[in-house]
């Protein structure tokens, strides 16, 4: 391959030794990564990595600006967007007075709840997307809620969503509409809601259609995208990389996904298909696209996977998924969860693990992957070429962004189950390089996560220091081992 021209070109050439760990099966293979800083594409916007919580959480005391731990964890990722929705959105009852909620409602929202949300958003510097109930058709009440949200949240209100996963309303899992409920039915209802919201809260923008991936988004997406002009400020979709069902009678049981299955190349290949489907719809609608609800594992009767969500594999997956989607043109991702107490296998980025001594939300493994991804925010993705024997098979991924000041930030993620790599980074025109290593005892580890040489969690740091890379024989030396990620920063020499 031809060498890269221009002084800003970066060539990363590696001789890697991979093996079983015993040394008996070690083999030598070449790995190289080449970055073209002048060939820039999508902007990785600051705040692109956001969070999502259930609407039912608005009535909980966990939504508070008084919890310094929660505020600090949000501030470190943001300022970003907190999407409030999920399945509970279509079973929430809004009242501006003292009305008793109907039997179908699982929560009752009032202006007091929005006041507490506003205080949290102010403390964290975030904005919110708020979902109103479409599952139980009541456009007048939705208009009332939008009006109160606009008044109370003010500039902190980014948009209103109308319903959560409407393409699943007619399924046996939700039973909010007849099985024949389709795109045309949804669009007619959407128009009625829009009219009430526009009359009650002029100027409030909408986000949507907020579809679930299954069972019918491939049909719904292009039809809704064809509506001209689009009713939405941003085109939204949900995605979970793995799925299963527990054998409790509500759903047909399926096998539990494993940590290793979360990290296989097939998952990333399928993600590329999902991304292309959403960005194609966004192009038709002339709107930016967002994965408004996403995480490791979905289930009809559980929130997370025991072997995928609370383990370090989720950090590597979240880092790659965030950068994979953003580099393909997706403008934002909201990782779903809850801020209060969570189960042992919850996928929440921030929550209080049951049995924990802490009464404050803690960063879960997936949070560390999101934190690592934010280091690339603020720059434009640059063309990257990865080659060599060890690059074959898709088990090593790499991304790079370049900021206006010339600084390059690289993410190198090693999904391989074993082995170590010594990478020589040759960077003409760059005077210094440093790295932050994201690691844990294994991809199955539920704790012991270190980032930048410090533990992430109780007593740890949310601003891990960088370790300078040694410069030997004209190259910076970067050690990389299986089941870890590196965030490498390259600073240009002063001219």
Defining key terms:
495 residues; alpha/beta; Immunoglobulin-like; TIM Barrel; 2 domains; 9 helices; 23% helix; 32% strand; disordered N terminus
Secondary-structure blueprint of this entry?
Blueprint: E1 10-18, E2 27-43, E3 49-54, H1 68-77, E4 81-85, E5 92-94, E6 107-109, H2 111-124, E7 127-132, H3 139-153, E8 157-162, H4 183-200, E9 206-211, H5 217-225, E10 234-243, H6 259-262, H7 265-285, E11 289-298, H8 313-327, E12 332-337, E13 341-342, E14 350-353, E15 362-363, H9 365-374, E16 380-388, E17 396-402, E18 408-414, E19 420-427, E20 430-439, E21 450-451, E22 454-455, E23 467-468, E24 471-472, E25 475-481, E26 484-492
Parallel strand pairs: 3-4, 3-12, 4-7, 5-6, 7-8, 8-9, 9-10, 10-11, 11-12, 13-14
Antiparallel strand pairs: 1-2, 1-19, 2-16, 14-15, 16-17, 17-18, 18-26, 19-25, 20-21, 20-23, 20-26, 21-22, 24-25
Helix pairs in contact: 2-3, 3-4, 5-7, 8-9
CATH architecture of the largest domain: Alpha-Beta Barrel
Number of helices: 9
Q: What CATH first level of the largest domain would be assigned?
A: Alpha Beta
CATH superfamily of the largest domain: Glycosidases
**Number of DSSP strands?**
26
In quaternary terms, these chains amount to: single chain
Reported for the largest beta sheet, the result is:
13 strands, antiparallel
Q: How far apart lie the N and C ends?
A: 29 Å
Average pLDDT over all residues: 89
Strand content: 25-35%
List low-confidence stretches: 1-29
Secondary structure class reads: alpha/beta
């Amino acid at each position: 391959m031809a060498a890269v021209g221009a002084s800003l070109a970066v060539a990363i050439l590696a001789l890697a030794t991979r093996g079983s760990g015993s040394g008996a099966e070690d083999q030598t293979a070449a790995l190289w990564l080449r970055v073209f800083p002048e060939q820039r594409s999508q902007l990785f916007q600051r705040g692109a990595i956001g969070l999502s919580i259930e609407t039912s959480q608005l009535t909980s005391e966990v939504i508070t600006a008084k919890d310094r731990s929660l505020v600090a964890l949000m501030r470190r990722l943001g300022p970003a967007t907190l999407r409030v929705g999920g399945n509970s959105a279509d079973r929430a009852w809004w009242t501006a007075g003292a009305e008793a909620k109907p039997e179908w409602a699982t929560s009752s929202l009032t202006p007091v709840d929005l006041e507490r949300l506003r205080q949290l958003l102010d403390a964290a510097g975030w904005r919110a997307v708020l979902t109103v109930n479409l599952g139980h058709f009541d456009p007048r009440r939705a208009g009332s809620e939008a009006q109160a949200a606009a008044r109370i949240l003010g500039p902190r209100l980014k948009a209103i969503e109308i319903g959560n996963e409407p393409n699943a309303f007619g399924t046996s899992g939700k039973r909010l509409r007849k099985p024949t409920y389709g795109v045309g039915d949804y669009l007619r209802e959407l128009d009625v809601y829009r009219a009430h919201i526009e009359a009650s809260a002029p100027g409030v923008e909408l986000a949507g259609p907020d579809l679930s991936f299954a069972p019918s988004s491939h049909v719904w997406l292009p039809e809704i995208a064809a509506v001209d002009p689009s009713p939405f400020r941003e085109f939204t979709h949900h995605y979970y990389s793995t799925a299963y069902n527990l054998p409790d009678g509500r759903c047909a049981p399926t096998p539990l996904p494993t940590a290793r299955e979360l990290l296989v190349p097939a998952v990333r290949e399928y993600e590329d298909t999902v991304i292309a489907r959403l960005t194609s719809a966004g192009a038709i609608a002339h709107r930016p696209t967002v994965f408004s609800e996403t995480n490791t594992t979905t289930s009809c009767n559980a929130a997370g996977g025991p072997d995928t969500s609370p383990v370090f594999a989720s950090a590597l997956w979240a880092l790659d998924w965030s950068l994979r989607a953003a580099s393909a043109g997706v403008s934002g991702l909201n990782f779903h969860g809850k801020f209060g107490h969570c189960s042992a296998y919850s996928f929440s980025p921030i929550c209080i693990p049951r049995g924990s001594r802490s009464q404050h939300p803690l960063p879960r493994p997936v949070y560390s992957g999101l934190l690592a991804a934010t280091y690339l925010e603020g720059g434009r993705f640059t063309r990257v070429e990865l080659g060599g024997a060890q690059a074959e098979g898709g088990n090593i991924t790499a991304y790079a962004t370049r900021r206006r000041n010339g600084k390059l930030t690289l993410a190198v993620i090693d999904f391989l189950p074993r082995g170590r790599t010594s990478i020589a980074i040759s960077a003409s025109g760059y005077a210094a390089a440093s790295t932050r290593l994201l690691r844990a005892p294994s991809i199955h580890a539920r704790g012991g996560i270190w980032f930048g040489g410090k533990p992430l969690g109780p007593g740890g740091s949310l601003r891990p220091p960088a370790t300078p890379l040694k410069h030997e024989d004209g190259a910076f030396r970067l050690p990389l081992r299986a089941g870890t990620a590196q965030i490498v920063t390259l600073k240009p020499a002063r001219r």
